[in-house]
Amino acid sequence: MVRLGLFAICLVLAFGYCSAKAIDSNVKVAVVHNLTTFLSENPDVKLLQPLIKEQLGDVALPKLQINYRLGNRISGDRLSATAGASNQWSTPQNVKLTLAYPRSGVGNVVTYVQVIVEQSTNLGRGYVTSGGIGQRQVTIIIEAQSTLYFKYNAEIFGY
Fold first, then answer.
1. Average pLDDT of the chain?
2. What string of DSSP letters covers 101-135?
3. Any bridge partners for residue 83, and if so which?
4. DSSP strand pairing (21-22 vs 49-50)
5. How far from the centroid of its chain's Cα atoms is residue 51's Cα?
6. Segments forming the whole domain that contains residue 99
7. What was the pLDDT predicted at 117?
8. pLDDT of residue 55
9. Is 138 exposed, middle or buried (CB count within 10 Å of its CB: 0-12, 13-18, 19+)?
């Protein structure tokens, strides 16, 4: 319970002409258009891995569910952090969600990350910009393009 109390996931929804909402205002908001350029301009980014993307919904439905995941559950790990939010718009938006664990202090050793996203298109990607499996911190970016709806539920497991 104490770990959940110390847990923090930063949320940044940056979209077109709408105002950004953030839990942590210290997070930089920028869309990465070219990963090679991003890496050369940000030498502090040591790890850049794509998350596995699984489309769980039907393409014909207006709301798709995409499961971004990294790592595997292991014996003895437990839920270390959760976060979730949703938003919808009348015109298509580009959304960028930044999740960072932990917000401060030392977190559990990360074993598995899952972010389930609902959106109106299947356009998007997810990637790790720092930390990761086997480390005590992780920062993940989830991007969705041209969506009318964005809902996410994130879970981070560790020991």
1. 76
2. E-SSS--PPEEEEEEEEEESSS-EEEEEEEE-TTS
3. 154
4. unpaired
5. 10
6. 2-158
7. 93
8. 67
9. buried
Distance from C-alpha of 96 to C-alpha of 106, rounded to nearest angstrom = 25
End-to-end CA distance of the chain: 13
Residue 61 neighbours by CB under 8 Å, 6+ apart? none
Low-confidence ranges of the chain (pLDDT < 50): 1-29, 47-48
Q: What is the pLDDT of residues 76-93, one digit of tens each?
A: 999 999 999 999 999 999
d(CA 24, CA 58): 34
Provide the Cα torsion 75, 79, 80, 84; round to 10°. 150
The two three-digit tokens of residue 87, written as one number: 């938003």
Residue 10: the pLDDT is 33
Return d(Cα 77, Cα 83) in angstroms, integer. 18
Per the structure, how many domains does the chain have? 1
Q: Indicate yes or no: pTM above 0.90.
A: no
Name residue 56's amino acid.
L
Whole-angstrom CA distances from 150 to 12, 14, 40, 138, 146 are: 12, 12, 30, 22, 10
